[in-house]
Amino acid sequence: MTQPEPHDVPAAPVARPTVRFRWAWWLLAYVSLGTGIVGIFVPGLPTTVFILIAAWAASRGSERLHNRLLQHPQFGPVIRNWQAHGAVSRKGKWMATLTMAVCAGIMLWCVPVAWVKWLSIGCMAAVAVWLWTRPLPPESAPPTG
After folding, report:
1. Are 29 and 65 in contact (CB under 8 A)?
2. pLDDT tens per residue, range 61-86
3. What is the pTM assigned to this prediction?
4. For the chain, which residues make up each domain, given as ranges?
């Protein structure tokens, strides 16, 4: 008997938190979504990370927002790839890496305190290494950014 492929196994249902804390998940989801939207317009502020956090929190606090994010034409495929496979597209990896490189250059040029520069650049380098170790989405998944 063969084992099912990991992507064929249905995802376990998310345990709904108690009503007492549902408002906190709802609040985190909307604050993260707002921060992600601001990140579209503010250089150096990530968008995708905050949208993923919003989807994660919404799955616990707002089923309506979670479904809207999953159906969004831009964010939906990215969220579904991350939730199903922990996968990040090659384009997404390159965009994140280039953005971090630009931010590192700006920091080298503008930040006068050496330890702040190097700690920040070290954190960005660690994130870039981690990001490139994430798998690519399966071939059947539509390309995402």
Report:
1. yes
2. 889 999 999 999 988 998 899 888 98
3. 0.67
4. 18-72, 79-145
